[in-house]
Structures are given as structure tokens and as C-alpha cells.
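Q: What residues go here?
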């Protein structure tokens, strides 16, 4: 069973993908028939995002239904990988489009019915993107799913780009060959800039965590405060390991205790430290490793 928040996330992504598929078919035909590279740019990016959207939806459903048992520490890295995939495809599509529009030559104006259909479709596409953006924003507001957040960022790009497309296509369809070519090139170029900018921002957010970067210094200070608060409860501090997977922050502390301490005392200390870490770092996943102090170790006096 899944809760209402998870169901809302799945519905938002599923509706976004379904509407993309519906609009993509006539959109592609009109773009090719009218020779509008601005529309073709939208179609190319749309096809890539539909593929990624389907993968994202399948992954999201499996995460919500806990069918990813092989991912022992959660699916945060899997979500980040999907986000990086979306960003990579955006950059790839931008490169292809930039290469194509660099050699664009003036084209004869399309028939009136085709020009009118192109204008209607780009306006409809903008309206659909705006509605989907609002839906995904609601689903990603709690920040709990990186996949939904990535879909929201990608949809933001699509909505902003489709607004530019409306202007560029309208000018191109209602003006002469030279002005049409210039409008087509400028419109496509703006779409490319938005695609690359958003892709870079998405990668900057996800790559450090995929490489297991330690938690920020402010979080490290919280760990130090907890250790200082309990410094008289353990004999020696071992390893401190921190990392983030998705929205979850993992902290692993290794503490050496006096061999005379009972299991009950050790368990109480671990629970106490976990509770204090949760207060300092909301949402933390803390693992406390308690080990007996070796006989050969000399314990030096310590101060707080």
C-alpha cells in the first residue's frame, strides 16, 4: 500500500508523460511539414523526456512499493542517477540542435492551414506544460522524491522553452523567409540555452552525492556537539563516516567503551546518541558502532 503523497507523485508524473505523448504526435508532424526547427527542437527534447519520464515513473512506482530490495541503503542514488540521465539527455539534445540550426537556410512559407495549425499547437503545448508544471510543483513541494523534483525541473525548462516557441513560431509562420529563418534560429537558440543551464544545475545538485561527498560542515558541527555532550560516556572515538543518499543523511560513528560496561548501558548510550543526532540533524539515519576497548590500549585523561 502507498500513502496519498506517494500516489499524488505517481499521478503527477504519469499524467505529464501521457499528455506529452498525446501532443507529441501532431506536434512532430507539423514541425516536419512546416519545416520549423523551433518545433522540431521541442519534439526532439520531448521524445527524450518522454523516454526518461517513463523510466522515472517505473522507478518511482518500484520505490514506493519497496520492490528495490537490492538497494540496501535506500534508493536515493538510483533517484539521483535518473536525474543525471535527464540532464545528460538535455545536453545531448541541445548539442544536436545547435549543430543543425547553424546551417539553416531560408525556407518558403508553409501553406496557410499548416501555419495556423502550427500556431495553435504551440499555444496548446504551452498551456499543457503550464498545467503539468503546476501539478508537478504540488507533488514535489515536500522535497521527498528526487525523481519528482527532477521531473519538475525538466518541466520548468519545457514550459519556459514552449513560451519562447510560441513567439518564435508565430513570427516565423506570419513573416517572410529571411525573418522566418532568423526567428527560427533565435527561438531554437533560446531553447538550447535553457536546456543546458537547467541540465548543469541538475548535475551540480546530484553528482557530489553520487560520489559520496561528506556532509556539509554545518552538519559536521552538529555531530561534534553530540560527541562533546557524551564525551564522558565512551573511552575513545573511532571512525566518523558521513554521506548523503537522496534526501537522507547517513552518519556512522564508531565508539570504544570500557569492557566493564553492560549491554544495557551500551544500548542506552547508542539510543541516547541517536536521539541527540536526530535533534541536531533532522532526518538523519544514524548508525552507532559500539566496540569494547582493547586491553592493550592505554586510556589517556580527556577534557571536554
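A:
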Amino acid at each position: 500500500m502507498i500513502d496519498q503523497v506517494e500516489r499524488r507523485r505517481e499521478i503527477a508524473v504519469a499524467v505529464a508523460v501521457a499528455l506529452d505523448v498525446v501532443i507529441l504526435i501532431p506536434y512532430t508532424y507539423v514541425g516536419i511539414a512546416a519545416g520549423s526547427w523551433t518545433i522540431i527542437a521541442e519534439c526532439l527534447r520531448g521524445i527524450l523526456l518522454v523516454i526518461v519520464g517513463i523510466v522515472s515513473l517505473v522507478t518511482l512506482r518500484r520505490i514506493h512499493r519497496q520492490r528495490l530490495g537490492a538497494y540496501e541503503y535506500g534508493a536515493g542514488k538510483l533517484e539521483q542517477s535518473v536525474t543525471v540521465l535527464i540532464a545528460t539527455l538535455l545536453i545531448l539534445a541541445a548539442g544536436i540542435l545547435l549543430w543543425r540550426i547553424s546551417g539553416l537556410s531560408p525556407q518558403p512559407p508553409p501553406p496557410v492551414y499548416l501555419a495556423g495549425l502550427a500556431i495553435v499547437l504551440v499555444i496548446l503545448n504551452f498551456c499543457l506544460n503550464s498545467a503539468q508544471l503546476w501539478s508537478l510543483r504540488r507533488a514535489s513541494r515536500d522535497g521527498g522524491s528526487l525523481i519528482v523534483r527532477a521531473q519538475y525541473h525538466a518541466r520548468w525548462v519545457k514550459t519556459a522553452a514552449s513560451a519562447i516557441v510560441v513567439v518564435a513560431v508565430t513570427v516565423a509562420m506570419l513573416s517572410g523567409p529571411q525573418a522566418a529563418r532568423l526567428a527560427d534560429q533565435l527561438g531554437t537558440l533560446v531553447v538550447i540555452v535553457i536546456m543546458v543551464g537547467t541540465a548543469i544545475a541538475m548535475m551540480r545538485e546530484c553528482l557530489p552525492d553520487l560520489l559520496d561527498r561528506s556532509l556539509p560542515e554545518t552538519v559536521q558541527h552538529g555531530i561534534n556537539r553530540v560527541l562533546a555532550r557524551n564525551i564522558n560516556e565512551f573511552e575513545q572515538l573511532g571512525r566518523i563516516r558521513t554521506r548523503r543518499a537522496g534526501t537522507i543523511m547517513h552518519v556512522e560513528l564508531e565508539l570504544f567503551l570500557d569492557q566493564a560496561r553492560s549491554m544495557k548501558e551500551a544500548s542506552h548510550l547508542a539510543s541516547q546518541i541517536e536521539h541527540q543526532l536526530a535533534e541536531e540533524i533532522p532526518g538523519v539515519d544514524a548508525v552507532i558502532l559500539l566496540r569494547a576497548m582493547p586491553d592493550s590500549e592505554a586510556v589517556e585523561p580527556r577534557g571536554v
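A: Context that may help when evaluating the design: The helical segments are 4-34, 37-64, 76-101, 112-140, 146-174, 177-210, 217-229, 263-280. The first helix runs from residue 4 to 34.
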